[in-house]
Design a protein that fits this description.
alpha/beta, globular, five-stranded mixed β-sheet, five-stranded parallel β-sheet, 11 helices, 41% helix, binds xanthosine-5'-monophosphate, single chain
Length: 321
């Protein structure tokens, strides 16, 4: 399958793997490439394709950007260690938190994450390693939404007329740019990734920053992190495409131990979708929603109100920013 947007049923995963591995090997030649692993399905698949093509000449980094889910960087390193793929964990929490300081506008937040990731952190790694290529897991949906002006996905450049070589000093290889999430899962399965990875729910590049309305601070990230951990633990295995907790900016009056508690609001979202282009809210049982609400207000300090999103995409989008 080579055409943009061809059907996933027609995708020959083995053939796709052979072609992409050959392309990566040819582009990189006898040099080395840097690879950005976030732990999501897309970058996990790219990591295995790159590993097949380049072996030890692929240097895979997972960047702790302070925006990841609970225990995620360590868990991802272990998962890939088990697959025989070495991963380097880099602590860049300070750089990202500094870049996000004081920013509340969604597109400015996305831009801050993009610049810190590609220019500052990866620019430095690429210069240091003398690699000329960065491998990344951009998929077709990322490109569509960016080109349509819906969201500036953190990982889309060429389609916006941005030349990464000029802007950041290296070329970007995007082996998955012709397929969507369902196609990526098919390729991941054919590559022998464990189901826990190829069927992992999607997680956006800007990570928890996409789930915080208003300023992204270390304190607010901790609230979003705990809330997302509760929602994931309750909804894991429910069969939905994606589920998440959004931290709102507005506070509301609540009551705790008989006293006024002007607290935070969490919005739970859970989506049924095939490929993220359109989505509808999952019809979760009221008992389950009540349990999630109870846990969020008990286990996440400062949360007094929980809502469930019942609008579809469009006009909603799946993440909040
Ligand atoms: P939206 O919020 O645009 O999300 O309806 C559609 C799907 O894309 C994911 N998403 C992103 N993925 N970089 C990514 O790699 C991004 O900037 C980004 N923004 C959203 C989102 O989690 C959902 O699966």
């Amino acid at each position: 399958m080579e055409d943009r947007g061809s059907r996933t049923e027609d995708l020959d995963a083995e053939d796709f793997i052979t072609r992409r591995v050959a392309e990566i090997a040819e582009a990189v030649g006898d040099g080395c490439a840097i690879n950005a692993l976030s732990g999501g399905v897309d970058s996990a698949v790219v990591t295995l394709l790159g590993h097949k093509a380049l072996g030890p000449r692929l240097k895979t980094y997972i960047i702790d950007n302070a925006l990841m889910r609970k225990d995620e960087p360590q868990e991802v390193v272990q998962m890939f260690k088990d697959l025989g793929v070495p991963i380097i964990l880099l602590d860049a929490r300070r750089e990202f938190l500094d870049a996000l300081k004081g920013i509340t506008d969604p597109e400015e937040k996305r831009e801050a994450v993009t610049q810190t990731f590609y220019k500052k952190v990866f620019g430095h790694l690429v210069r240091e390693s003398k690699a000329r290529y960065l491998l990344q897991g951009t998929i077709l949906t990322d490109v569509d939404e960016t080109v349509a002006g819906i969201k500036r996905q953190h990982n889309v450049f060429a389609q916006l007329g941005i030349d990464p070589e000029v802007s950041f000093g290296y070329k970007i290889l995007e082996p998955l740019v012709q397929i969507r999430k369902d196609g990526v899962r098919k390729v991941g399965k054919a590559l022998g990734l464990p189901e826990a990875i190829f069927n992992r729910i999607p997680f956006p590049g800007p990570a928890l920053a996409a789930r915080i309305i208003g300023e992204v601070t270390a304190e607010r990230l901790q609230v979003a992190r705990l809330a997302n951990a509760v929602v994931e633990s309750e909804l894991m295995g429910c069969g939905a495409f994606q589920y998440m907790a959004i931290l709102h900016e507005d506070r509301v009056t609540g009551i705790r131990e008989g006293k006024r508690d002007f607290g935070m609001q969490i919005e739970v979202r859970c989506w049924d979708s095939l490929d993220a282009r359109e989505a509808t809210p999952t019809r979760l049982s009221f008992d389950l929603l009540t349990k999630i609400s109870f846990r969020l207000t008990q286990e996440v300090p400062g949360v007094v109100s929980v809502t469930y999103n019942i609008s579809s995409k469009p006009p909603s989008t799946m993440e909040a920013i």
